[in-house]
Amino acid sequence: MIEIFLLAIALIWLIFASISDIKTHEVPDWLSYSLVIIGLGNALFKSMALNNIEFLFYSLFAFSLFFLVSSLMYYTKQWGGGDVKLLIALVTLFPVYPSELLNYFSPNLSLPFILILILNLIMFGALYSIIYSIYLLIKNKINFLKEIKDYKFNKIYLFIPLIFIIISILIKDILFRLMLLSLGIIILITPLTLVYTKIIEKKCMFKRISISKLTEGDWIINNIYHNKKLVYNKNSPGVTKAQISIIKRLNIKNLVIKEGIPFIPAFLLAFIAAIVFGGLLPF
User: Fold this and answer.
1) Do 20 and 73 reside in the same domain of the chain?
2) Which domain, by its residues, includes 250?
3) How far apart are CA 34 and CA 29, in angstroms?
4) For the segment 6-58, what is each residue's pLDDT rounded down to a tens digit?
5) pTM of this prediction?
6) What is the bridge-based pairing of β-strands 219-220 and 224-226?
7) Is there a domain that residue 148 lies in?
8) If phi over 0 gives left and psi between -120 and 50 gives alpha, with beta otherwise, what is residue 170?
9) 133 Cβ partners below 8 Å, 6+ apart?
10) What letters, b where the CB count within 10 A reaches 16 and e where it falls short, cover 125-155?
11) How far, in Å, CA of 109 to CA of 171, rounded?
C-alpha cells in the first residue's frame, strides 16, 4: 500500500511541477527536495524493518548515479536546474519498479527500472521537444518566416544530396539504391534541421527582461563585466544568486536571457509510461 501512496505523491508533485514549469519556467526546489527526503526515508525505514540494507543501498546508488548524469546535462546546458533536481528525486524515490503495482500492470521490465525511465525520457523528450518547437514556430510564425526569407543558404548543401539522389535512381541494386537515397535525404535534412533549430532559438527563445526579474539559473546570453572583471560568463550553466546580487548593483536596465523548453511535462509522460508499460523498446 505504501508504494501506491508514494506513486500518488510522485504523480501529484510531477503535475504541479509541470504546471509551474510551463507557466513560469521554474520548478520550486521544495518539490524535488521533499521527494528526495521521502525516498531516502522510505528506503531507510524498509531496510530497518526488514533488516535488509539493499533498499537503502538502491536509493543511495540511484541518487549518486543520477546526480552525476544530471549534472552533466546541466553543465552542458541541456537541462535546467529544476529538471536536474526533479530527475534525481524521482530515481531516489523509485530506484526499482514498485512491486505492488505488478498487481495492476504488466510492464516490460527486461531492463533495470532507472534505465527504463531514462530511455523513456529520451524518447518522450525528443517527441515533446519537436511538438513544443512547432508550437513556438506557429506562435512566432511572422518572425520565423522573415528570418527564413533573409537566411543565406549555401547552395552546396542542396547540390551534394541532389547528386546522391540522382545516382540512386540510376543504380539497379535496390539495397544500394535505398542506401544512397537515404544518405542523400540525411545530408539534405541535417543542415535544414540545424537552421530550423537556430532560428527557433534566436526568434522564439531569447527574451529581454529587466534586472529585477532575473532569477537563479537564468541563462544570460552575453558576458557581464564590472571594472574589467568578468562577473558572469555566458558559457556558464546559469546565473547564481551571488552573481545576481552583483549584477543588480551595476548600471544595467535589462538583459537578454535564453528560455529553455519547459521539460518537466516530458518527465511526467516518461514516468507514467515507465510505470504502466515499462520499457517501450522491444527488449
Assistant:
1) yes
2) 206-258
3) 8
4) 999 999 999 999 999 888 888 888 999 999 999 999 999 988 988 888 888 88
5) 0.74
6) unpaired
7) yes
8) alpha
9) 196, 197, 200, 261
10) beebeeebbeebbeebeeebeebeeeeeeee
11) 45
Q: Is residue 218 part of a domain?
A: yes
What is the Cα–Cα distance from 143 to 117, expressed in whole angstroms?
A: 37
Encode pLDDT of 82-133 as tens digits.
788 888 899 999 999 988 889 899 999 988 998 899 889 888 988 888 888 8
Q: The cell 500500500 sits on which residue?
A: 1
CB 274 within 8 A of CB 116: yes
* End-to-end Cα spacing for the chain: 30
Contact 93, 10 (CB under 8 A): yes
Name the strand (E) or helix (H) holding 112: none
Q: Is residue 170 part of a domain?
A: yes
Would you give the DSSP letter of residue 95?
Answer: S
The owner of cell 530497518 is: 48
- pLDDT tens, position by position, 202-251: 767 788 888 878 887 788 888 888 887 888 888 887 788 888 888 888 87
Q: Are 222 and 256 in contact (CB under 8 A)?
A: yes
Alpha-carbon separation of residue 215 from 85, 181, 245, 256, 259 (angstroms):
17, 48, 10, 13, 12
State the DSSP code for 111. S
Q: What is the mean pLDDT of residues 65-76?
A: 76
- Cα distances from 155 to residues 163, 181, 189, in angstroms, run 13, 19, 14
Residue 25 Rama label (left phi>0; alpha psi -120 to 50; beta): left
Verify that 190 and 230 share a domain, yes or no: no
Number of domains in the chain: 3
Tell me, yes or no, whether 119 lies in a domain: no
